[in-house]
Amino acid sequence: MSEFTVRRAVADDSKRLTRLVRSSRAYRGDYATMVEGYQVGGAYIEHHPVFVAVDASDRVLGFYALLVDDAELDLAFVADSAQGLGIGRLLMEHMAGQARAAGLTSVRVVAHPPAEEFYLRTGAVRTGTVPPTGHVHWERPELRYDIA
Q1: Element (DSSP H or E) covering residue 64
Q2: Closest to 145 in 3D by CA, of 77, 81, 97
Q3: 52 pLDDT exceeds 70?
Q4: Burial class (CB in 10 A: 0-12, 13-18, 19+), 24
Q5: In 3D, which of 113, 96, 105, 107 has the Cα closest to residue 26?
Q6: Is 65 exposed, middle or buried (0-12, 13-18, 19+ CB in 10 A)?
Q7: In this prediction, what percent of the chain has a pLDDT beyond 90?
């Protein structure tokens, strides 16, 4: 099995993270409008705690962004080719450690509906539903990670 590491993202990762978001199978069909034209900008990466899971060749396998001031997981993606390798779980464990270090007691997640089961499997609890807004025409599950 390959070794994976998690490192802080840098502005130069912007194109790779944007490509990962836009190419995600989870955002095909009705969900495509969510990522159409989406960009993970360098300024965003520099301003927020954004962490990437990489392999030994520094290939980005997944990433997450934690909005500390809002106690919210803003972005979390795993490359389609890396699904099922434990990358998502590794990232959520890392996120919990970062949240704990920042003094957070919980982290809110407004999930993409197909990702809800993943969040539940990695320790989140469902707290409600967020109604459709803007270009999002469907309800989204709202979850919470309790940070011990």
Answers
A1: strand 60-67
A2: 97
A3: yes
A4: buried
A5: 113
A6: buried
A7: 78
